[in-house]
Give the backbone structure.
Amino acid sequence: MSGDPEIYVADANGYNLQRLTFSPGVDISPVWNPKTGNEIAFVSDRSGSPQIYMMSGDGTNLRRLIAQGGDASGPSWSPNGQLIAFQWRLSDTGTYDIYVIEIATGKIVQLTHDAARNEHPWWAPDGRHLCFESTRAKSKQIWMMLADGANPRQLTHEGENWNPSWSN
């Protein structure tokens, strides 16, 4: 509708379409805060490279969460609405790792630390675990770890597997 990807909301029946972002860049991958239902985290390249932003459900109170550069994408809210897991490549020569940002303080913690691509984190409903895809086993497989990055465990072993999600 605008010539580049923007974020919109609508009623469940598809009516009352409302545009929330107005950026000359790409705005994609919106995810709602599951605790409040009022904040949206999303990815935008309005700063030149993909970064994670947050806004209120009506498009106001826009703020950039990741300001240290690189490519940050794949936001996933924790069930308590206090943390966002994401994938981040800090330099063009680096690879993606999984990080968590605490929304209230802006504190960022790196959860994976290896030369493989670790991407698409997703919170377990209990908020104690994350699943993600990784190439650390030489092919793209699904892994699980504790929310602090401890005890990584490979869940799939055959073929190529990506974009994990948890059921409730």
